[in-house]
Design brief:
The complex is a heterodimer of chains A (807) and B (339). Chain A is α+β, with helices and mostly antiparallel strands. Chain A has 20 helices and 39 strands. In chain A, α5 packs across α6, α7 packs across α8 and α10 packs across α12. Chain B is an alpha+beta fold and 339 residues long. The chains are: A alpha+beta (807), B alpha+beta (339).
Amino acid sequence: MNTPISWIKAYVPDLDVDVQEFVDKMTLSGSHVEGYEKKDKNLEKIVVGQIKSIEKHPDADKLVVCQVDVGKETLQIVTGAKNVNTGDLVPVVLDGGKVAAAHGDDTEYPNGIQIKKGKLRGVESNGMMCGIEELGSSRDFYPEAPEDGIYIFLPESGVKPGDDAVKALGLDDTVVEYEITSNRVDCFSMIGMAREVAATFQKPFYPPVVTVKANDKDVNDFIKVRVEDTDLCTRYCARVVENIKIGPSPKWMQDRLKAMGIRSINNLVDITNYIMEEYGQPMHAYDLDTIAKHEIVVKRAADGDTFTTLDGQERKMDSGVLMICDGEKEVGIAGIMGGENSMITDDVKTVLFEAACFDGTNIRLASKRIGLQTDASFKFTKGLDPNTAYEAINRACQLVEEMGCGDVVGGVVDVYPEPVGQKVLPFEPERYNALLGTDIPKEDMLKYFERLELKYNEADNTLTIPTFRQDLGCMADLAEEVARFYGYDNIPVSLPKGEATVGKKPFNQRVDDVAREICERNGFSGGMTYSFESPKVFDRLLLPEDAKEREAIVISNPLGEDFSIMRTLSLNGMLTSLATNYNRRNKTARLYELGNIYLPKALPLTELPEEKMRLTLGMYGEGDFFTMKGVVEEILDKLGILGVECEPAGDIPYLHPGRQARIQKGKLNLGLIGQIHPEVGDNYGIKAEAYVAVLNMETLTMLASFDRKYEGIAKFPASTRDLSMVMDKGLFVGQIEHVIQKNAGKILESCELFDVYEGEQVGEGKKSVAFSLIFRAKDRNLESAEVDKAVEKVLSALKEMGIELRA
Amino acid sequence: MKEKLEAIKADALAKISSAKDLDSLNDIKVAILGKKGELTAVLKSMKDVAPEERPVVGQMVNEARAAIEEKLEEEKTKITRLLRTEKMKREIIDVTLPGRKNMRGHRHPNQIALEDLERVFIGMGYEVVDGPEVEYDRYNFELLNIPENHPAKDEQDTFYITKDILLRTQTSPVQARVMEKGKLPIRMISPGRVFRADEVDATHSPSFHQLEGLVIDKGITFADLKGTLEQFAKEFFGEKTKVKFRPHHFPFTEPSAEVDITCFKCGGKGCRMCKGSGWIEILGCGMVHPNVLDMCGIDSKEYQGFAFGIGLERVTLLKYEIDDMRLLYENDVRFLNQF
């Protein structure tokens, strides 16, 4: 919402603050000022001058030398303009003054252009006569200005030499732009804003006093109105004006519209535009002679109807769109735009004015479906007060009479089946203070309310709420009104009292924190990817047609296919990020992400899906499978999760078949790890070996424990035996380790792999594996024989598997 | 005998003094004090000494031995030190060579900002609570006083799965869930991912993060809200930060406010970051609307509360002066490594 300060002053004449104070105080009372534009910011020392004589320039054919009377003196000014004549009254910038723009130049001059006296081709020039563009405006708003040349004041403007030209042109104004919150429908109007201004600065407020004289005829003889769909049209007011005299509107009205960026068209159109700004109430004017049977019917369109709006566009309607019809046909889309078939032309004789209240939600949805948003539809979407319509249509007729643009017919057609009454709320000063933490006297509160036109009824201690304040409905709403005008600034500062509470994080977030810490310690940086992705992801990851992961939640109104399903596995985001790094030639990238996947219990969704937190690690460049495995092991170790193993897998489609494993604790799956399948790598454009691991954080959280007990440091010496053996290449080291753990007995302290070798010396299809076994007892020195016996048992178990010690 | 001892001693001390390394020192030790050494030989010949002279001679031998041993030790220390000094001279390194770095990972800037925020509020007694990202309309809108047909519910803004299930557009539904459980008083924050149907550009993302706070107890006031957020702003943005509350409108709070803080770059003088105003808008807040309390089963006549919400990405972008939101989702390691 924009308001020129000059227009506000029409209702709050005593307003006497500078722009900065105005802006600051309005913001603090709830009308957030987003910015303001001083129209005369770069206009300085510009007066009205009258050209007394024009002579040719002695040395330049295209220039003339003028003597210009600027009130106190007569200046010699050289100009190249062709359109000036002796006697013309023109804007003149004096020496040292400023204009906003240069003639014939689109460059923006944020600080304007300074004008200094000087010589033009040897002839002294003591100022400059200006065109409308140099004054920062355009012919749109000053149609009387020439297309190219100096602005010449119209004789009826009544200006004389020496007058302030900026003021005479109405450019001495500031337009303030507010961010109006959706609840304050009333503030989308000049009157509404003026009321706020008056309340904020504690000045009297003078809204227009509306009186219509009207003639002796009866509007009911001219028009009948029937509203069929009263759910979408709560009020419909109509008035008729006959003997229309189309002409220009008065300067004051043109100036106000101009300041709002609205071009003056003619008196009739200007009145409807003016009312829309002044009251926030859109109006429509029909040529009554085009209205068949002199009847208006308000009803929903039929599906598939087409309608040509007054901009000449044919548009498709549906049964959700409310139409204004006459006795035979549709003549306008309610609240959005009128029809070509009933529009006003210059030979209009009788006009039908409409001011109605249409359902805001329906207008919003309909205008979106039709694809047509207008100033009127924008106002209606806010949900207008039906009582404004009546006031507004009468104000329009008042203006018609004042401006002499027709004869208003007596009476108003007012279809208003369920009038909206004024709410009455109790006046509860103690509760307002208790909510705000203040001690504001109730007399002060009543003063604030009075300025907002809330009527206090002493008899029953209530407040009557005017209908334009539809946002006020409960105690808290009234407390906010008190707070706004008392000043949020003035409310004291305290801290919540009462029962002390303990600040904490849930356990799962502690587990997440450990995971982050270990990932980062190992060179993995935290990434963040989207929760939604493309269904094409499944093919990219080589998931078979019947894979469970393909059962994903679909967003009904996505931003496009690429964001249309909720991820059921976390790898796509990671691989996309790795690919980004790879394409940007980052040699090594290590990333991790903690984020949810979304698993539906059934599709389509009938209840919320399971959201599972996944820790996803991904890397390429430096490091291999075992780098990744080391990180996973470190996380599990730090979380106190023991006895976890990598079980070789071969069925995970997006991983290298020979380099993939499930991370298991017994039957419980904790996640997976592996090298990305080269074909998947190709699909993402990662040409390096990439490794990933995915950990199920819910399972980790369930198993995690930070409890530790001190066990004592071993007192007795250890005995170490190294076993080096040859076996089939296909056997997993993990299996051997199992056998060792199982057979070496309690005295085995640790069993560590220290060498794996494949090559000529061990023969084709074989590998040599060496373990270091450390034996120790907690309570005594171990006998050599005891250790030998344990090793013996291990060896015989290995022998059963066909594994021999290496010679 | 005495002369002989003196001679051995003098000879030994001289030899020790001229020894150049530890080996020759050891040789000297063996030659004099060893089993077959000169002094040992003297000791062995004690039997030839008259018994009455033996104590005297014995003492002389011990004195000689002590003197030699002391000299040996002294010389050994000296040589060791000398050798070490020489060795260290050979060991000079170029200390200006670069340090060896471990491959260290970096936390995502958004996560750092989140943890900083959490730390402040946990310190003030707030509990961190999680909630679902795919949410019922009831929690995301209805219980928060956003009725059917409210513009915020438009498909333009909200991603829908079904008519009743959607991607949460704010973290406030977590508050509704906690209130509905009815365990009072409440002092919580709920950080998390939220979704709005905004196309991706430098300042918008269809997925971003919020942190919302909620306090409900008897006698909580707007003044408490002001005090809490002022304390938060000082701890998070610095002791000198000033806070400004402007009236605003949110469906689930009344009265509502938007909060500006003095620009942390220029301190309020006005700069490019604050667009010359000296203030930066940082969060929205207000007193929990009585309708919301009542709908969630809390008696609004007995309990009052406040709520506030902070856009995490906004804080991150401001704090680190990141000019394009898309960087947060690209995960380029050259970006992440800067944090």
